[in-house]
Amino acid sequence: MKPSTRRRLKRWSALAAGAVVLFVLLSNRWVINSTDAYVFRNWALLPDNEVGVVLGTSKYLESGRPSPEFRGRIAAAAELYRNGKVRHLIVSGANPDSTYNEPRKMYQELVQAGVPEKAITMDFAGYRTFDSIVRADAVFGLDRFTIVTQKYHSYRAVFIGRKLGLKVVAYVAPATSDGDQGLRHPPREVFARAMAVLDLFLLRTTPRFLGDPQPIRLAPGAEAT
């Protein structure tokens, strides 16, 4: 390869890398700045919604230790239900095979935490955050709901919902009793936010599975808004 050709390749590679870095940085700034007002850390300030969507995560870390993220989301969802901030919960996560089932584990833990079985719906096709948010609207018939997850994840989830025209807010799962905030994936989240922008505005992504509508049946006396 000629020296001049190598120089051009290096120049174009540097420009391409710079463009990618700039896109990721700007995407993150856009996602966070445009959603911060809809992310709540105090349940008392959180707007009431009929339904909360708990985003899935594994109950255990790769090391086998209990996941602080899982514990935090369960605690937050149960807290919202007890305080009347939501009347029904959708637990949405991955269910790739018989050995791994996020919605089932969340359902079991919420029941143990005092949430009635009839107040929980399992969404087994929440393979990605994008899928969980879209399915809440397209499958479960919700145009407004409360997202339950960790702070770093809340921005992306709310961004997806708001850009799809949904009236969503997020409740940040508090630290667990041992003070662990559950911050396993912030570096990954930086790139996931950029991917969310691509999904919405360039790739026109659709969920892996949709299926037939399954409107949420609220408890007697509860009316969907």
What's the short story on this structure?
This protein has six helices and six strands, in the order αββαβαβαβαβα.
Write the layout of secondary structure elements.
Elements: H1 3-35, E1 39-40, E2 51-55, H2 68-82, E3 88-92, H3 102-112, E4 120-123, H4 129-138, E5 144-149, H5 151-163, E6 167-172, H6 186-201
Parallel strand pairs: 1-6, 2-3, 2-5, 3-4, 5-6
Helix pairs in contact: 1-5, 1-6, 4-5, 5-6
Describe this structure in words.
It is a single chain. With 225 residues, this protein is α/β, with parallel strands linked by helices. The protein has one domain (24-201): 3-Layer(aba) Sandwich (Rossmann fold). Helix content is 44%, strand content 12%. It has helices at 3-35, 68-82, 102-112, 129-138, 151-163, 186-201, and strands spanning 39-40, 51-55, 88-92, 120-123, 144-149, 167-172. The chain has a 6-stranded parallel β-sheet with strand order 1-6-5-2-3-4, sandwiched between helices. The mean pLDDT is 92.
| Unreliable stretches covering 5 or more consecutive residues | none
- Whole-number count of domains: 1
Structural class: alpha/beta
Into which percent range does the helicity of residues fall? 40-55%
The name of the CATH topology is Rossmann fold
- How is the main sheet built? 6 strands, parallel
- The number of helical segments is 6
Basic shape: elongated
Strand order of the largest sheet: 1-6-5-2-3-4
| Reported CATH architecture | 3-Layer(aba) Sandwich
Secondary-structure element order, N to C: HEEHEHEHEHEH
| Proportion of strand residues | 5-15%
First and last CA, distance: 66 Å
Name of the CATH class = Alpha Beta
Question: From the alpha-carbon coordinates, what is the Rg to the nearest angstrom?
Answer: 19 Å
Mean pLDDT: 92
Number of strands: 6
The CATH homologous superfamily is named HUPs
